[in-house]
Amino acid sequence: MNSHGIFGRLFCNSVFGRPATAHRSLTTKVLKENAKSTRAKKPRTADSTAGTTVTDPVTVPKDVQDYFQSRDASVLSLFPNNLLRKCSQNTERFYVADRSTALHVADVLTRDLPSDRLLVEVNPGPGLLTTELLKKHNQNLRVYETESSFEDRLKALGLPDDAFRKADFNGLWRLAYLDSFDGGQRAANLLNDLPHKRRWQDEVNFRLFSVIGSIKFLRYLMNSITHQNEFYSLGRYEMILAMSPLLFSHIASTKESGYKLYRGGTIVFQTYFEHELVGTIPRRHLVPWFHGSNAKKLRTLHQKLLQDGADEWYLVKIVPRKNLYEYLPPDNLALFASFVTQHFVSRKNRIIPALEHWIPNCGARLIMNPNYTNPLEKEKKPALPSQLVKSVPLVANDYLEKMTIYTEFGELTPSQVLTLFNEFINWPEFHQSPFVQAAESQKPKQRALRRLVDDEDALADAPDDPMPTQRKKLNNVQ
């Protein structure tokens, strides 16, 4: 190939990305799923005796039928059969399917909730939880449902005027991904009906409940703060989310948890948000159930967490930090996210060699910094568990006890990462360093959002790293 052809190909790749490789895995995945669905579905079969075609009904697994019939058989009739089938763990649509759990969740959602604050329920389904919420908070309730078969039943429950919205709220990340290609306003239009507060320091704007099955929705929330768009424009909010122990571990882990759980996304999440484990619910009280086909992908600790998730899921309260700007001004949000993304590609990435790639010979400043060289003068901190039931406050100047040329990024807590970042961007050479150009190249939302699609596969296939082999189950949480 001549030089013009090589240069032209490199230029196109730098501007438009690498379409052949970037979308090959996603295209192959879609084709495989279509092939499976074609083989699995037999919508019509010929009846030789009657001369007519009949539709095969969707069958509900026997264990699902037996379980709900033993508790409350009437619940089965509230759901279409396709939602009672077992599905992949990556689904984003879950429904509360038990009346006692609906009452428990309603108590948690309305606890300390002012009467004038909007309460949002995502995927109410047949309205088991909605019925309980109407008893406790009937004047300021809104529901987002994407399944058309539930619309009439929900409206018949006596919802406030204009409280029903037909939308896939958990799929906001997907709408934002599509908007990044054509400049659309799909995500912004879905959020238009929610109260907007521009001042970050104001009180929380609304409280929302949803059941999430993947990290994509949480990644979208982080991206909205980083890029200061869409969900960010709503101001601060409260979310009480039901999630699996595995998903909770991805956002609440500490550096003791190991490579597969304590990742760059964990650092950014714990910097942006406060979280608290406020309760548990039985996993079987949510439909659809899992069929467990992805269990082989998850190794060691992931397998243990997936087994725990078969019994109960966690109710987690998530609120953006009110004092975030005291530690990370808005102009530095994108730089911080880029700093974490680039340096936490590997937890074993060494700090000084990585930073000297951007600013040569800067390592001596860290090694000779008295904040790092006098560890005995620092107050010893209590050891943290491998998972934080409740988040800890950020600290402005949280230095590692000792910095050497062998110190790795995986040894830092979120506050220590933030301290290192603020030190890095205040060096005089920073604005002329290649890091600024590298951060600018990551600004287009297409790149950040495209990673959401493959994030879970990357986590499942991550290389092994020494980590604790046992995890104590979180008990007695109310």
From TrEMBL:
Top-rank taxon, per record: Eukaryota
Q: Does the keyword Repeat apply?
A: no
The UniProt transmembrane annotation reads none
- What would you give as a GO molecular function for this chain, any one? RNA binding
* A Gene Ontology biological process term: transcription initiation at mitochondrial promoter
GO cellular component terms attached to this protein's record = mitochondrial matrix
Alphabetized UniProt keyword annotations: Methyltransferase, Mitochondrion, RNA-binding, rRNA processing, S-adenosyl-L-methionine, Transcription, Transcription regulation, Transferase, Transit peptide
Q: Does the keyword Signal apply?
A: no
> Where is the segment annotated Disordered?
33-54, 455-478
Q: Where in the cell is it found?
A: Mitochondrion
Please list the residue ranges that the record marks as compositionally biased, kind Acidic residues.
455-464
**Could you tell me which PANTHER family the record lists for this protein?**
DIMETHYLADENOSINE TRANSFERASE, DIMETHYLADENOSINE TRANSFERASE 2, MITOCHONDRIAL
List the protein's name.
Dimethyladenosine transferase 2, mitochondrial
Source organism per UniProt: Anopheles albimanus
